[in-house]
């Protein structure tokens, strides 16, 4: 029966999507929040310089680290010291796989499990926690990957909506920030920015320019747990993957949000009991009620159009997952009817 394979395939797709607890984010849940992230470290050449700059500007950021990329964190004491410094300074440590394979979609289940668990174990030895956030190398992953990632304790898959291109000498990382932020404002937008703490331009020029620039524009520079409203480490979730505590946003360098329930960060429960990220526009309307909105331009500026035809989703990312589940189930039903 020629439809049978399709049905089996679509069913497994739908079931995996329903099972999938790993949430997807490419921006912060609250308008005005801006998460600076670094991939591929630690780097013995540049990570400490970056940490110095973050200290100087009192910014908490996020490091998606590898176990054995530039340096082997299981054996190198300087690398261990960098990871400890990152963690103890209040930056968030996320997982970027152990060896940084060139994409994970071609890995077997066992290979990907190793990539996740070897890093989990190495980090546990060094900083005493295992990361709950994951960034796939190259930003590529499959539904199949998500099941494995979830089994390794990951709760959130973090992409980005601003790419500094700091690794590519054809681009000017500073100009990438300027171009991406043009026409955007903290009242209607939030960002997760991709950088690499193994890149000289990031450590030596770009951060020193863009951090003050972002602050001047009125963005709150937040670590990833605040950005997405979920705890950063596996021990802060119960056995049903529910967070034991919600990270609270300290939006005190910006008047954008000044309310008593700021700690909630827009994470809400829907009917299915699944935690979903809230609609940023609604968050904005609910959370912001101060004179600084000045009545001018706080309406639906959420229509995503970053001008390069490569738009990342600006609507609730959890909704996209849910919609794809609904679509898969619908297709399955249609196929079954066809078969009968
Ligand atoms: C990168 O862009 C910034 C902002 O336009 C500019 O100030 C800087 O000189 C540029 N850097 C290089 C190396 O071109
Ligand atoms: C924020 O709210 C607190 C408590 O309601 C209030 O004391 C404070 O003045 C508010 N700050 C701003 C900037 O509105
Ligand atoms: C928002 O501000 C307006 C004017 O200051 C006030 O009348 C209204 O009650 C506020 N709404 C909320 C939800 O705080
Ligand atoms: C009003 O808000 C806009 C951003 O929405 C900002 O550019 C402008 O400076 C604000 N004006 C005042 C007087 O605060
Ligand atoms: C809102 O902002 C857009 C661009 O950011 C501008 O073109 C428009 O005139 C503004 N509307 C008002 C009412 O200020």
TrEMBL record:
Region of interest: Disordered: 239-315
Gene Ontology biological process: carbohydrate metabolic process
InterPro entries: Glyco_hydro/deAcase_b/a-brl (IPR011330), NODB_dom (IPR002509)
Domain of life: Eukaryota
GO molecular function, one term: hydrolase activity, acting on carbon-nitrogen (but not peptide) bonds
Residues annotated as signal peptide: 1-20
Domain NodB homology: 32-222
Coiled-coil residue spans: none
Bias kind Low complexity: ranges: 243-269, 282-310
Names of required cofactors: Co(2+)
Entry keyword set: Carbohydrate metabolism, Hydrolase, Metal-binding, Signal
PANTHER family: CHITIN DEACETYLASE, CHITIN DEACETYLASE-RELATED
Protein name in UniProt: Glycoside hydrolase/deacetylase
Organism name: Anaeromyces robustus
């Amino acid at each position: 029966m020629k439809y049978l394979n399709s049905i089996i395939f679509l069913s497994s797709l739908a079931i995996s999507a329903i099972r999938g607890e790993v949430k997807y984010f490419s921006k912060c849940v609250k308008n005005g929040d801006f998460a600076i992230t670094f991939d591929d470290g630690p780097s013995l050449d540049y990570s400490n310089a970056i940490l110095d700059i973050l200290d100087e500007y009192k910014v908490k950021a996020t490091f998606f680290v590898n176990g054995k990329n530039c340096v082997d964190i299981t054996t190198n004491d300087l690398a261990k010291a960098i990871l400890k410094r990152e963690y103890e300074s209040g930056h968030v440590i996320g997982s970027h796989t152990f060896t940084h394979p060139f994409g994970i979609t071609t890995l077997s289940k066992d290979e990907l499990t190793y990539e996740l668990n070897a890093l989990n174990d190495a980090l546990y030895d060094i900083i005493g926690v295992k990361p709950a956030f994951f960034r796939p190398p190259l930003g590529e992953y499959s539904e199949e990957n998500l099941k494995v990632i979830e089994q390794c304790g990951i709760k959130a898959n973090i992409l980005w909506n601003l790419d500094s291109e700091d690794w590519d000498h054809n681009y000017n990382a500073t100009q990438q920030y300027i171009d991406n932020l043009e026409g955007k404002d903290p009242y209607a937008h939030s960002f997760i920015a991709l950088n690499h703490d193994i890149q000289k331009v990031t450590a030596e020029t770009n951060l020193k320019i863009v951090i003050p620039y972002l602050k001047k524009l009125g963005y709150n520079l937040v670590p990833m747990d605040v950005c997405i409203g979920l705890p950063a480490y596996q021990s802060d979730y119960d056995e049903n993957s529910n967070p034991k505590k919600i990270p609270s946003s300290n939006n005190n360098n910006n008047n954008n949000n000044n309310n008593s329930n700021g700690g909630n960060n827009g994470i809400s429960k829907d009917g299915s009991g699944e935690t979903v990220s809230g609609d940023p526009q609604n968050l904005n309307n609910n959370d912001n009620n101060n004179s600084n909105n000045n009545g001018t331009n706080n309406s639906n500026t959420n229509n995503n159009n970053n001008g390069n035809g490569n738009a990342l989703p600006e609507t609730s990312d959890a909704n996209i997952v849910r919609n794809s589940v609904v679509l898969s189930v619908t297709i399955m039903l249609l196929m079954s009817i066809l078969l009968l």
